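Re: folding output
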Amino acid sequence: MTAPVGAELAAFRADPATEGWRRLPFFVDGGADAVAAALDARIAAGERLAPRPGAIFRALRLTPLDSVKVVILGQDPYPRRGDANGLAFSYVGDRSLPPSLKAIFAELSADLGIPPPRRGDLTAWAQAGMLLLNAALTTTEGVSGVHLKLGWARLADEVVAAVSARRPAVAFLLWGANARSRAGLIDRNKHLVIESGHPSPLNRARDFPGSRPFSRANAWLETRAAGVVDWRL
């Protein structure tokens, strides 16, 4: 039987765009191979993954280390089949937008005065230098959060630390407790850290609306001659 996650890991390592990422210890010392083997065992036992195996490393493949301008951290993929495409908060399903993404788009519109996007695919952001990384790159279809302790957290930590160490000026947008827990990995002398509550409507503090992360990130990037990002979709 084929090992689809193992095959995708091999393709990731062979992709010239991933050179910066695949030097992380996670990909060198067997950590990635252990996670891939665990996932392939689950698939062999009948489990379905979200996103599909071919999209698992998509965030790192679309946004090379040397092109990162902004980092947005999510928790794990949308669990419904066909909704996730490997990018944090990105939605490609056929129903209405998820509530958290609606809140993000509402804040984007209020902050920058651009119309809220009608579609949830954030691929254009990833291609423009916005790393959209989930703390766990996979979940089981139909269930959220079940792969958070599978070994992915180490990768998220290493990615944040590598961006902090190797990039000259990056805006980190940390929304919610999971993302904010990694703030200590970021060198604030070099980078901008914007922390707020999660955009989810379950966030009772309602401390995401009005946080203006998009304009604040662009204003800071402009002062660092890093070039503003185009948030339009």
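--- second protein (sequence, then structure) ---
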Amino acid sequence: MFISQKCLYAMRAIFELSLREDSEPVKINKIADAQDIPPRFLEIILNQLKHAGFVESKRGKQGGYVLSRNPDELNVGEIIKAVQGSIDMPSKTFETGDGKRKRGDYAFNYMWGSLRKAVSSIYNNTSFSDLISLENKSEKHFATNYSI
């Protein structure tokens, strides 16, 4: 399974905007700094997300980017499809080139299909609100270290 760096950055950008859902538009540099994304690359990604309908841009001094939908309505699978197209995963068993069916082909193909369905289900059923909730829970478990 392969998720491109561009796709990971896109998900982080959407996550960051989800955290700031009720606030003013967020400038590219703030998103880039918060998520450690190269600003020039982020600009390209946000433009792609804008064309896909996930974010809107506001011009002017108070401009920046905002989500076009509520984080409850945005799922990880949508972002992956928009940015990357699909998740690369084996779709069939290795072939020797002779075209002959080998023992185990059905079992392996079934396994790859099941894996693809399971991964897709997780991505498609995980909203950005879910991710924010998970992040908030994890922060409660870690105390700030004030050692000097």
